[in-house]
Amino acid sequence: MHSGPGSKSIIFVASSVLAFAALAGAQTLKHRPPAAPAAPVAPSVHAAVPAASEPTLPKGTSLQVEITHHYPMKAGEAIEGRLLHPIFADGKLVIPANTKLHGEVVRLQPDKKARWHARLMGDFTPFHKPVVRFDEMLLPDGPLNISAATASDGAPVLHLIAPGITPHKSFFARYWSQAKADFHDRMSYFTAPGKGDRALQLLYHQLPYHPERIEAHTAWSFELSAPVAVPDPPQDAPALAAAPAAPGNPETWAVHALLMRGLTSATARPGDPVQALVIEPVFDKDKLLVVPQGATLIGKVASAQAARSFGRNGKLRFTFQQVRFPEGYDKQVQGSLAGAATEKTQDLSLDAEGTITPRNRSSAVAPLLLTMLASRALDTDGNVTAQAGVASNGFGLVGRIVGVVAGDRNLAAGIGFYAAGLSFYENFLVSGRDVVFPKDTRIEILTTPLRAPVLRPAGQ
Hints:
By secondary structure, the protein is of the alpha+beta class. It has helices spanning 5-30, 112-120, 171-191, 195-204, 365-375, 384-391, 396-406, 409-429, and strands at residues 56-57, 62-67, 71-72, 78-83, 87-89, 92-95, 100-110, 128-139, 142-145, 155-161, 213-214, 218-223, 228-229, 253-259, 263-264, 273-278, 282-283, 289-291, 296-305, 315-324, 330-343, 348-350, 356-358, 436-437, 442-449. Among the domains are: 53-174 and 198-234, Lipocalin; 365-429, no CATH class.
Protein backbone atom coordinates (compact mmCIF):
# COMPACT_ATOMS: atom_id res chain seq x y z
CA MET A 1 0.00 0.00 0.00
CA HIS A 2 1.52 3.27 -1.13
CA SER A 3 1.21 6.52 0.66
CA GLY A 4 0.36 9.70 -1.11
CA PRO A 5 2.24 12.99 -0.84
CA GLY A 6 -0.28 14.24 1.73
CA SER A 7 0.36 11.28 3.96
CA LYS A 8 4.12 11.80 3.80
CA SER A 9 3.69 15.40 4.87
CA ILE A 10 1.59 14.40 7.85
CA ILE A 11 4.14 11.77 8.89
CA PHE A 12 6.97 14.30 8.61
CA VAL A 13 5.17 16.87 10.76
CA ALA A 14 4.29 14.28 13.42
CA SER A 15 7.90 13.07 13.59
CA SER A 16 9.16 16.61 14.02
CA VAL A 17 6.72 17.26 16.87
CA LEU A 18 7.76 14.08 18.69
CA ALA A 19 11.44 14.86 18.30
CA PHE A 20 10.95 18.40 19.67
CA ALA A 21 8.95 17.09 22.61
CA ALA A 22 11.67 14.55 23.47
CA LEU A 23 14.33 17.24 23.34
CA ALA A 24 12.28 19.56 25.55
CA GLY A 25 11.67 16.78 28.06
CA ALA A 26 15.38 16.00 28.25
CA GLN A 27 16.22 19.63 28.90
CA THR A 28 13.55 19.83 31.60
CA LEU A 29 14.94 16.87 33.49
CA LYS A 30 18.44 18.25 33.31
CA HIS A 31 17.65 21.74 34.63
CA ARG A 32 14.71 20.99 37.01
CA PRO A 33 14.61 23.61 39.86
CA PRO A 34 14.39 22.42 43.48
CA ALA A 35 10.90 21.56 44.61
CA ALA A 36 9.07 24.32 46.51
CA PRO A 37 8.13 23.54 50.12
CA ALA A 38 4.64 22.21 50.51
CA ALA A 39 2.08 24.72 51.63
CA PRO A 40 0.84 24.20 55.19
CA VAL A 41 -2.35 22.25 55.34
CA ALA A 42 -5.00 23.26 57.81
CA PRO A 43 -5.55 20.51 60.38
CA SER A 44 -8.70 18.59 59.86
CA VAL A 45 -11.23 17.96 62.53
CA HIS A 46 -9.86 14.45 62.81
CA ALA A 47 -6.28 15.61 63.54
CA ALA A 48 -4.59 14.71 66.81
CA VAL A 49 -5.97 16.63 69.79
CA PRO A 50 -3.39 19.11 71.20
CA ALA A 51 -2.32 19.02 74.83
CA ALA A 52 -4.68 20.59 77.34
CA SER A 53 -4.15 24.32 77.83
CA GLU A 54 -3.04 25.80 81.09
CA PRO A 55 -5.83 26.48 83.61
CA THR A 56 -6.73 30.14 83.80
CA LEU A 57 -8.05 32.13 86.73
CA PRO A 58 -10.63 34.51 85.25
CA LYS A 59 -10.81 38.20 85.90
CA GLY A 60 -12.69 38.87 89.14
CA THR A 61 -11.38 35.79 90.97
CA SER A 62 -11.41 36.61 94.68
CA LEU A 63 -8.31 35.99 96.82
CA GLN A 64 -7.82 36.44 100.54
CA VAL A 65 -4.26 37.02 101.73
CA GLU A 66 -2.98 37.24 105.31
CA ILE A 67 0.36 38.57 106.56
CA THR A 68 2.06 36.53 109.27
CA HIS A 69 4.04 39.24 111.10
CA HIS A 70 4.05 42.98 111.73
CA TYR A 71 5.11 45.61 109.19
CA PRO A 72 5.79 49.35 109.59
CA MET A 73 2.95 51.61 108.53
CA LYS A 74 4.58 53.40 105.60
CA ALA A 75 4.02 53.71 101.87
CA GLY A 76 6.33 51.61 99.70
CA GLU A 77 6.86 48.96 102.39
CA ALA A 78 7.30 45.48 100.84
CA ILE A 79 5.06 42.85 102.44
CA GLU A 80 4.66 39.09 102.16
CA GLY A 81 1.45 37.18 102.78
CA ARG A 82 -0.05 33.74 102.41
CA LEU A 83 -3.18 32.57 100.65
CA LEU A 84 -5.80 31.69 103.25
CA HIS A 85 -7.91 29.44 101.01
CA PRO A 86 -7.23 27.22 97.98
CA ILE A 87 -8.17 28.41 94.49
CA PHE A 88 -10.05 26.15 92.07
CA ALA A 89 -10.48 26.48 88.30
CA ASP A 90 -12.90 24.30 86.32
CA GLY A 91 -13.42 22.17 89.40
CA LYS A 92 -9.70 21.43 89.88
CA LEU A 93 -7.29 22.69 92.49
CA VAL A 94 -4.77 25.01 90.79
CA ILE A 95 -3.33 27.01 93.72
CA PRO A 96 -3.18 25.44 97.21
CA ALA A 97 -3.73 27.29 100.46
CA ASN A 98 -0.71 28.90 102.17
CA THR A 99 0.85 29.86 98.82
CA LYS A 100 3.05 32.91 99.39
CA LEU A 101 2.41 36.26 97.71
CA HIS A 102 4.53 39.40 97.50
CA GLY A 103 3.20 42.93 97.43
CA GLU A 104 3.67 46.41 98.83
CA VAL A 105 1.89 49.21 100.64
CA VAL A 106 0.75 51.52 97.85
CA ARG A 107 -0.38 54.45 100.00
CA LEU A 108 -1.85 55.37 103.39
CA GLN A 109 -5.37 56.61 104.01
CA PRO A 110 -6.37 58.56 107.14
CA ASP A 111 -8.48 56.58 109.59
CA LYS A 112 -10.72 59.36 110.89
CA LYS A 113 -12.82 57.15 113.15
CA ALA A 114 -9.75 55.75 114.93
CA ARG A 115 -8.24 59.24 115.22
CA TRP A 116 -11.24 60.81 116.94
CA HIS A 117 -11.71 57.91 119.33
CA ALA A 118 -8.00 58.00 120.25
CA ARG A 119 -8.05 61.75 120.84
CA LEU A 120 -10.81 61.30 123.39
CA MET A 121 -8.37 59.04 125.24
CA GLY A 122 -5.42 61.46 124.96
CA ASP A 123 -3.76 59.73 121.96
CA PHE A 124 -2.98 62.15 119.10
CA THR A 125 -1.36 59.64 116.76
CA PRO A 126 -2.52 60.25 113.14
CA PHE A 127 -3.86 56.75 112.52
CA HIS A 128 -3.91 55.42 108.95
CA LYS A 129 -5.27 52.54 106.91
CA PRO A 130 -2.82 50.89 104.51
CA VAL A 131 -3.80 50.41 100.86
CA VAL A 132 -1.93 47.34 99.56
CA ARG A 133 -1.46 45.54 96.27
CA PHE A 134 -0.15 42.01 95.73
CA ASP A 135 1.50 41.46 92.34
CA GLU A 136 3.49 38.23 92.61
CA MET A 137 2.60 34.68 93.58
CA LEU A 138 5.30 32.14 94.50
CA LEU A 139 4.45 28.79 92.89
CA PRO A 140 6.60 25.63 93.07
CA ASP A 141 7.89 26.33 89.54
CA GLY A 142 8.78 29.93 90.29
CA PRO A 143 7.16 33.35 90.70
CA LEU A 144 3.99 34.19 88.78
CA ASN A 145 3.04 37.80 88.11
CA ILE A 146 -0.59 38.68 88.74
CA SER A 147 -2.63 41.80 88.10
CA ALA A 148 -4.85 42.61 91.07
CA ALA A 149 -6.84 45.53 92.38
CA THR A 150 -5.71 47.41 95.46
CA ALA A 151 -7.27 46.53 98.82
CA SER A 152 -7.83 48.71 101.87
CA ASP A 153 -10.19 46.58 103.97
CA GLY A 154 -7.44 44.92 105.96
CA ALA A 155 -8.35 43.43 109.33
CA PRO A 156 -7.45 40.34 111.37
CA VAL A 157 -9.68 37.42 110.43
CA LEU A 158 -12.04 35.67 112.84
CA HIS A 159 -13.16 32.17 111.80
CA LEU A 160 -16.68 31.49 113.00
CA ILE A 161 -17.70 27.88 113.59
CA ALA A 162 -21.21 26.90 114.58
CA PRO A 163 -21.26 24.79 117.76
CA GLY A 164 -23.14 21.56 117.96
CA ILE A 165 -26.66 21.41 119.27
CA THR A 166 -26.61 21.98 123.02
CA PRO A 167 -29.31 21.07 125.51
CA HIS A 168 -31.72 23.78 126.57
CA LYS A 169 -30.47 25.88 129.47
CA SER A 170 -32.21 28.28 131.78
CA PHE A 171 -31.59 32.02 131.60
CA PHE A 172 -29.25 31.96 134.59
CA ALA A 173 -27.31 28.96 133.20
CA ARG A 174 -26.81 30.72 129.87
CA TYR A 175 -25.72 33.92 131.61
CA TRP A 176 -23.27 32.02 133.81
CA SER A 177 -21.79 30.20 130.80
CA GLN A 178 -21.39 33.50 128.95
CA ALA A 179 -19.77 35.11 132.00
CA LYS A 180 -17.27 32.26 132.28
CA ALA A 181 -16.44 32.49 128.57
CA ASP A 182 -15.89 36.25 128.86
CA PHE A 183 -13.65 35.73 131.90
CA HIS A 184 -11.50 33.20 130.05
CA ASP A 185 -11.24 35.54 127.06
CA ARG A 186 -10.05 38.38 129.27
CA MET A 187 -7.57 36.16 131.11
CA SER A 188 -6.12 34.95 127.80
CA TYR A 189 -4.96 38.52 127.21
CA PHE A 190 -2.47 38.02 130.05
CA THR A 191 -1.72 34.31 129.58
CA ALA A 192 -1.70 33.70 125.80
CA PRO A 193 1.62 33.79 123.91
CA GLY A 194 2.82 37.26 122.90
CA LYS A 195 1.93 38.97 126.18
CA GLY A 196 5.18 40.97 126.06
CA ASP A 197 4.19 42.56 122.78
CA ARG A 198 0.67 43.24 124.04
CA ALA A 199 2.09 44.98 127.12
CA LEU A 200 4.27 47.16 124.91
CA GLN A 201 1.30 48.12 122.73
CA LEU A 202 -0.74 48.91 125.86
CA LEU A 203 2.02 51.26 127.00
CA TYR A 204 2.18 52.85 123.55
CA HIS A 205 -1.54 53.63 123.63
CA GLN A 206 -1.05 55.53 126.87
CA LEU A 207 1.35 57.91 125.10
CA PRO A 208 0.14 61.02 123.28
CA TYR A 209 1.96 59.83 120.14
CA HIS A 210 3.41 56.46 119.16
CA PRO A 211 4.56 54.64 116.00
CA GLU A 212 2.00 52.82 113.88
CA ARG A 213 2.29 49.36 112.43
CA ILE A 214 0.32 46.90 110.33
CA GLU A 215 -0.65 44.16 112.75
CA ALA A 216 0.23 40.53 112.18
CA HIS A 217 -2.56 38.32 110.79
CA THR A 218 -4.17 41.26 109.00
CA ALA A 219 -5.94 39.94 105.90
CA TRP A 220 -7.16 41.59 102.71
CA SER A 221 -9.71 40.44 100.16
CA PHE A 222 -9.17 41.54 96.57
CA GLU A 223 -9.98 40.48 93.02
CA LEU A 224 -7.84 39.79 89.97
CA SER A 225 -8.08 42.63 87.46
CA ALA A 226 -6.92 40.42 84.54
CA PRO A 227 -6.96 36.67 83.79
CA VAL A 228 -3.95 34.67 85.00
CA ALA A 229 -2.73 31.44 83.38
CA VAL A 230 -1.37 29.07 86.01
CA PRO A 231 1.40 26.75 84.76
CA ASP A 232 1.80 23.16 85.92
CA PRO A 233 -1.00 23.01 88.49
CA PRO A 234 -0.79 20.41 91.27
CA GLN A 235 -2.61 17.13 91.04
CA ASP A 236 -6.37 17.16 90.98
CA ALA A 237 -8.09 18.03 94.22
CA PRO A 238 -9.22 14.96 96.13
CA ALA A 239 -12.89 14.30 96.36
CA LEU A 240 -14.37 16.10 99.31
CA ALA A 241 -16.71 13.76 101.10
CA ALA A 242 -19.88 15.09 102.60
CA ALA A 243 -20.27 15.38 106.34
CA PRO A 244 -21.17 11.99 107.79
CA ALA A 245 -24.85 11.65 108.48
CA ALA A 246 -26.27 10.06 111.59
CA PRO A 247 -28.24 6.83 111.07
CA GLY A 248 -31.66 7.68 109.69
CA ASN A 249 -30.68 11.25 108.78
CA PRO A 250 -30.15 12.54 105.24
CA GLU A 251 -26.71 13.24 103.81
CA THR A 252 -25.34 16.77 104.23
CA TRP A 253 -22.96 18.70 101.99
CA ALA A 254 -20.43 21.28 103.19
CA VAL A 255 -20.43 24.03 100.56
CA HIS A 256 -17.80 26.81 100.49
CA ALA A 257 -19.01 29.98 98.82
CA LEU A 258 -18.58 33.76 98.60
CA LEU A 259 -21.38 36.23 99.24
CA MET A 260 -22.21 37.97 95.97
CA ARG A 261 -23.49 41.10 97.74
CA GLY A 262 -22.77 42.72 101.07
CA LEU A 263 -25.12 41.95 103.95
CA THR A 264 -25.64 43.81 107.22
CA SER A 265 -28.13 43.64 110.04
CA ALA A 266 -28.49 47.44 109.85
CA THR A 267 -30.46 47.32 106.59
CA ALA A 268 -31.43 43.67 106.06
CA ARG A 269 -35.08 42.66 106.37
CA PRO A 270 -36.62 39.19 106.64
CA GLY A 271 -37.24 37.84 103.16
CA ASP A 272 -34.44 39.81 101.45
CA PRO A 273 -32.67 37.68 98.82
CA VAL A 274 -29.19 36.31 99.51
CA GLN A 275 -26.90 34.75 96.90
CA ALA A 276 -23.51 33.10 97.22
CA LEU A 277 -21.11 31.79 94.56
CA VAL A 278 -19.77 28.26 95.08
CA ILE A 279 -15.96 28.34 94.78
CA GLU A 280 -15.07 24.71 95.56
CA PRO A 281 -16.63 21.56 94.07
CA VAL A 282 -18.58 19.33 96.45
CA PHE A 283 -18.61 15.54 96.27
CA ASP A 284 -21.01 13.15 97.94
CA LYS A 285 -20.17 10.07 100.00
CA ASP A 286 -19.71 8.06 96.78
CA LYS A 287 -17.21 10.64 95.47
CA LEU A 288 -19.62 11.85 92.80
CA LEU A 289 -19.81 15.54 91.98
CA VAL A 290 -23.00 17.00 93.45
CA VAL A 291 -22.34 20.75 93.51
CA PRO A 292 -19.92 22.07 90.85
CA GLN A 293 -17.75 25.12 91.15
CA GLY A 294 -19.59 28.14 89.74
CA ALA A 295 -23.02 27.12 91.04
CA THR A 296 -25.07 29.72 92.91
CA LEU A 297 -26.69 29.28 96.31
CA ILE A 298 -29.99 31.13 96.50
CA GLY A 299 -31.57 31.94 99.84
CA LYS A 300 -33.11 34.68 101.94
CA VAL A 301 -32.75 36.51 105.22
CA ALA A 302 -34.59 34.52 107.88
CA SER A 303 -34.33 37.13 110.66
CA ALA A 304 -32.61 40.46 111.12
CA GLN A 305 -32.48 43.09 113.84
CA ALA A 306 -30.53 46.32 113.66
CA ALA A 307 -28.38 47.55 116.52
CA ARG A 308 -30.17 49.78 119.01
CA SER A 309 -29.36 52.22 121.74
CA PHE A 310 -28.03 51.27 125.17
CA GLY A 311 -25.52 48.84 123.66
CA ARG A 312 -28.03 46.42 122.19
CA ASN A 313 -26.34 44.62 119.29
CA GLY A 314 -27.84 43.58 115.99
CA LYS A 315 -28.64 40.04 114.88
CA LEU A 316 -28.71 38.32 111.51
CA ARG A 317 -29.62 34.88 110.20
CA PHE A 318 -29.97 33.72 106.61
CA THR A 319 -30.66 30.33 105.02
CA PHE A 320 -30.48 28.81 101.54
CA GLN A 321 -33.25 26.91 99.78
CA GLN A 322 -31.91 26.39 96.25
CA VAL A 323 -28.79 25.57 94.24
CA ARG A 324 -28.67 26.98 90.71
CA PHE A 325 -26.23 25.09 88.52
CA PRO A 326 -24.18 26.66 85.71
CA GLU A 327 -26.27 24.79 83.13
CA GLY A 328 -29.33 26.72 84.28
CA TYR A 329 -31.35 24.18 86.25
CA ASP A 330 -32.11 24.33 89.98
CA LYS A 331 -32.20 21.93 92.90
CA GLN A 332 -34.03 22.34 96.18
CA VAL A 333 -31.91 22.17 99.35
CA GLN A 334 -32.00 23.15 103.00
CA GLY A 335 -28.91 25.05 104.09
CA SER A 336 -27.81 27.09 107.07
CA LEU A 337 -24.64 28.93 107.99
CA ALA A 338 -22.02 26.69 109.57
CA GLY A 339 -18.96 28.95 109.40
CA ALA A 340 -17.62 32.25 108.08
CA ALA A 341 -14.44 34.30 107.90
CA THR A 342 -15.09 37.83 109.18
CA GLU A 343 -13.17 40.77 110.59
CA LYS A 344 -11.89 39.98 114.06
CA THR A 345 -12.72 43.51 115.23
CA GLN A 346 -16.42 42.69 114.86
CA ASP A 347 -16.04 39.96 117.51
CA LEU A 348 -19.03 38.00 116.18
CA SER A 349 -20.50 34.78 117.52
CA LEU A 350 -22.43 32.06 115.70
CA ASP A 351 -24.91 29.75 117.37
CA ALA A 352 -26.08 26.28 116.34
CA GLU A 353 -29.05 27.69 114.39
CA GLY A 354 -26.87 29.99 112.27
CA THR A 355 -27.68 33.28 114.03
CA ILE A 356 -24.81 35.78 113.99
CA THR A 357 -24.50 38.49 116.62
CA PRO A 358 -21.65 40.59 118.06
CA ARG A 359 -20.43 39.56 121.47
CA ASN A 360 -21.46 41.82 124.31
CA ARG A 361 -18.51 44.02 125.27
CA SER A 362 -20.26 46.11 127.90
CA SER A 363 -19.00 45.82 131.44
CA ALA A 364 -20.36 47.35 134.60
CA VAL A 365 -17.07 46.84 136.42
CA ALA A 366 -14.94 49.33 134.45
CA PRO A 367 -17.13 52.45 135.02
CA LEU A 368 -17.62 51.64 138.71
CA LEU A 369 -13.90 51.05 139.26
CA LEU A 370 -12.94 54.29 137.50
CA THR A 371 -15.53 56.21 139.55
CA MET A 372 -14.14 54.81 142.80
CA LEU A 373 -10.57 55.71 141.80
CA ALA A 374 -11.59 59.24 140.78
CA SER A 375 -13.26 59.82 144.14
CA ARG A 376 -9.97 59.05 145.90
CA ALA A 377 -8.66 62.47 144.88
CA LEU A 378 -11.41 64.15 146.96
CA ASP A 379 -10.36 62.30 150.10
CA THR A 380 -8.51 64.81 152.29
CA ASP A 381 -6.57 62.07 154.08
CA GLY A 382 -3.33 60.86 152.59
CA ASN A 383 -0.73 62.18 150.18
CA VAL A 384 -2.08 64.52 147.50
CA THR A 385 0.45 63.43 144.87
CA ALA A 386 -0.25 59.73 145.33
CA GLN A 387 -4.02 60.22 145.34
CA ALA A 388 -3.86 62.44 142.24
CA GLY A 389 -1.83 59.76 140.44
CA VAL A 390 -4.40 57.10 141.33
CA ALA A 391 -7.41 59.24 140.43
CA SER A 392 -6.31 60.82 137.12
CA ASN A 393 -6.90 57.81 134.87
CA GLY A 394 -8.42 59.71 131.95
CA PHE A 395 -6.68 61.19 128.92
CA GLY A 396 -3.86 58.65 128.93
CA LEU A 397 -0.39 59.38 130.25
CA VAL A 398 -0.86 63.11 129.60
CA GLY A 399 -3.76 63.28 132.06
CA ARG A 400 -1.88 61.35 134.71
CA ILE A 401 1.19 63.61 134.44
CA VAL A 402 -0.94 66.75 134.57
CA GLY A 403 -2.84 65.47 137.58
CA VAL A 404 0.33 64.60 139.50
CA VAL A 405 2.31 67.72 138.58
CA ALA A 406 -0.55 70.12 139.29
CA GLY A 407 -1.06 68.66 142.77
CA ASP A 408 -4.70 69.77 142.66
CA ARG A 409 -7.27 67.32 144.03
CA ASN A 410 -10.14 68.85 142.05
CA LEU A 411 -8.20 68.70 138.76
CA ALA A 412 -7.19 65.07 139.39
CA ALA A 413 -10.75 64.14 140.32
CA GLY A 414 -12.06 65.90 137.19
CA ILE A 415 -9.72 63.88 134.96
CA GLY A 416 -10.75 60.68 136.73
CA PHE A 417 -14.49 61.38 136.45
CA TYR A 418 -13.99 62.21 132.75
CA ALA A 419 -12.58 58.71 132.24
CA ALA A 420 -15.43 57.16 134.22
CA GLY A 421 -18.04 59.09 132.21
CA LEU A 422 -16.44 58.06 128.91
CA SER A 423 -16.37 54.44 130.02
CA PHE A 424 -20.01 54.60 131.12
CA TYR A 425 -21.00 56.08 127.74
CA GLU A 426 -19.16 53.42 125.74
CA ASN A 427 -20.54 50.58 127.85
CA PHE A 428 -24.17 51.60 128.22
CA LEU A 429 -25.27 54.66 126.21
CA VAL A 430 -23.68 54.20 122.81
CA SER A 431 -25.60 52.19 120.20
CA GLY A 432 -24.75 48.53 119.82
CA ARG A 433 -22.86 47.03 116.90
CA ASP A 434 -24.32 45.60 113.71
CA VAL A 435 -23.36 42.40 111.93
CA VAL A 436 -21.54 43.31 108.71
CA PHE A 437 -20.68 40.78 105.99
CA PRO A 438 -18.98 42.61 103.08
CA LYS A 439 -19.13 41.36 99.50
CA ASP A 440 -16.94 38.27 98.91
CA THR A 441 -17.15 37.18 102.55
CA ARG A 442 -16.27 33.50 102.62
CA ILE A 443 -18.96 31.33 104.19
CA GLU A 444 -19.53 27.62 104.76
CA ILE A 445 -23.03 26.24 104.34
CA LEU A 446 -24.26 22.84 105.48
CA THR A 447 -26.92 21.80 102.99
CA THR A 448 -29.29 18.85 102.90
CA PRO A 449 -30.71 17.86 99.50
CA LEU A 450 -34.47 17.51 99.45
CA ARG A 451 -34.39 15.15 96.48
CA ALA A 452 -32.12 12.42 95.17
CA PRO A 453 -28.69 13.87 94.28
CA VAL A 454 -29.11 13.66 90.48
CA LEU A 455 -27.39 16.80 89.28
CA ARG A 456 -27.63 16.36 85.50
CA PRO A 457 -30.36 17.86 83.35
CA ALA A 458 -33.20 15.60 82.28
CA GLY A 459 -32.35 13.44 79.29
CA GLN A 460 -28.65 13.01 80.08
